[in-house]
Specification:
By secondary structure, the chain is mainly beta. It has one domain (38-193): Beta Barrel (Lipocalin), CATH 2.40.128.20. The chain has two helices and twelve strands; from the N terminus they run H-E-E-E-E-E-E-E-E-H-E-E-E-E. The protein has a ten-stranded antiparallel beta barrel. Strand 1 (48-57) and strand 2 (64-66) form a beta hairpin. The chain is globular and about 90 Å long.
Length: 195
Amino acid sequence: MKKSILKLFINLFLFVSSISLYSQEFDVIPGYKPGPAPELEKLSFLIGNWNVQPFFREKETDQWTKGRQSTSKITLAMDEGFIKEESMVYFVDVPWKGLSFRGYDKFSKTFRMVYLDNIWTLLDVYEGFFEGEKLIFSNERSGTHYIVPDGSGNRALVKTITYPSQSGFTMDSYSSYDKGETWTNLFRLQYSESN
C-alpha cells in the first residue's frame, strides 16, 4: 500500500512538473523570444512571384542596356523567420542564379541579408536599414566587401530597394572602389507581379 501511494505521488509530481515546464515560455537567451522578429513585417511587400526586368550600365558608354525578361520567387522561410529569394536574372544571355535570405537580427537590431550567386560564387553579407522609402543593404557596413581580381582595390556593394508602387518595386545595385566615397549604379532590377 505504501509503495503504491509513493508511486502515485511520484507520478503525480512528474505529471505536474511536466505541465509546469511545458507552460513556461521557451527562452534560450534571456530577453529574446523565439520566432520571427516583428520588424520582418516591414519587408512583407517583397513576398510573391515576380517578373524581373534587368537593366545594366555599360562601363565604356555609361548607357543603360535592357536585359532579358527574368524571374524571382520570394517566400517566407525557416518558420517565417526569414524572407528567401530565388532568382534567375539574365544580363544579356548569361543566366545569373541568385539566392538570398533577408531577416532582422534581434541582437544587433539591424536588417541583414546573405546573398549567393552562381557567376561569382559570391557569398556576401549585408546590413540594412530604412532611409525614407528606401531599404538599403550594404556590405560596406558589414565589412564583407571583397578584393577585385584586377587589383583595383576593394569593391563594396550597396543594394537599395525602393518601396513598392502598385506595380511592384525596384532594386538598384551600386559599387564603390574607394571605401564608400563615391558610388556607381551598376544595374537595376524592376520587379512586377507575375501572372
